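In practice, a research group might receive sequence data for several interacting partners and want a quick structural hypothesis before committing to experiments. The following worked case mirrors that situation: the sequences arrive first, and a predicted assembly follows.
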Amino acid sequence: MSASLGIGLIGLGTVGTGVVQLLREAPAAVRRRKASFEVRRVAVRDPAKARDVQLAAGVLSGDAEQVISDPAVQVVVELTGAPGAFGWIRQALQAGKHVVTANKAVIAEHGDELFDLAAEGDVDLLFEASVAGGIPIIRSLRNGLVANHVESLYGILNGTTNYILTRMARGEGDYAGILAQAQAAGYAEPDPAADVSGADAAAKLAILSRIAFHTRGTPADIYCEGIEGIEASDIEFARELGFAIKLLAIARQASGGRVEARVHPVMIPAESQLANIQDEFNAIEVVGSAVGTQVFSGAGAGRMPTASAVVSDLVELAERRRRGASTSIEDMILGEEAVGFADICGVEMRYFLRVLVEDRPGVLEQIARILAREGISIASVLQKERDLEGGAVPLVIVTHEARERAMQQAVGAIDALPMVTRGVRLIRMQEL
Ligand code: HSE
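A structural hypothesis for the assembly, expressed as tokens:
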């Protein structure tokens, strides 16, 4: 057995504890690869707090910088999600340490700088746990699917929102009540705004499209819309039309060498694989030029699934170093011209529109006229004879393929009509 790789852990919360436990168990497959690890330093916010794992005296400290600078530490494993994370990762790379992290926000925002630093120092920066927890999607895209030109990628990348939408579809409560359950179950981030607004999924999508399409954008370049406006009645209408509503992170090859990347609620066919990913589970459907369609699904968060991803990075690192190989991040470095993101306004898709209108003659005609003016063709119309709010009724329109720019114009004009009592709720549709 070769010498152990010295690990310095920053953060001993849910995932950090899982990593220590998994390394102690040292699964047979890890041992067979002659990878061995020793957790030499651990930095936590409160060293006095009781922990689920026992550590030898002197290992625990309250100072991340001590962990980074300890000469016995060769790999810094950052698992905090704390505001200081970017600084610690940068410092570790500058100090010539390898870094393994689960921090999607840092990789998505600062990938360019960090990968350049890793290349300069000939060290590794691995981040399998940053997207979809236990699902090895990053390794699959980088290695298993390397012979493919990726055509499209559709992901359910946020467990909290999938949990909320699944439970709403089962009629188990309204949005706010189910969000509270998700928080109690530990799926939602401490501040669930990043989950429900789509920001968490957008950060993960920025990472996946960097690998799959060589884009270099940050989450701010990705169109992002959350699930806050989805109502139980939308899910009911979707079901009547043969669809389910999911929060999807989508990246697709677009014209002009650009990549379309967006996160928003989508109606997808009820029989599709992604429509049947329930509760807090994650899934990614990848369409590759050689391999065709592949769907990866499983636990996207949680102690042991995320620890599984972290340890897989550690084993890769240990193996590479044992063989004397240099950094494995060549594909992460900006060697050629970066691929840009396409503007969502140019995307064409079908749309579901729900609008609350007064129930009187001519209303439908006016709305239809606006859509016609924008060149948008109606596929079906549904009006329920139910009185929701002071004489208003929900009118549902499904369109044929239309361009986003035209749809945005039409929505603005419909919302301005006097007989519209509550403006358009627009849900994009996607055949998978
Ligand atoms: N809060 C995230 C989710 C898990 O709900 O999927 C960590 O990325």
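Before designing any experiment, note the following. Residues 350 and 400 are 5 Å apart (CA to CA). The pocket of L-homoserine is lined by residues 158-160, 187-189, 195, 200, 300-301 (CB under 6 Å).
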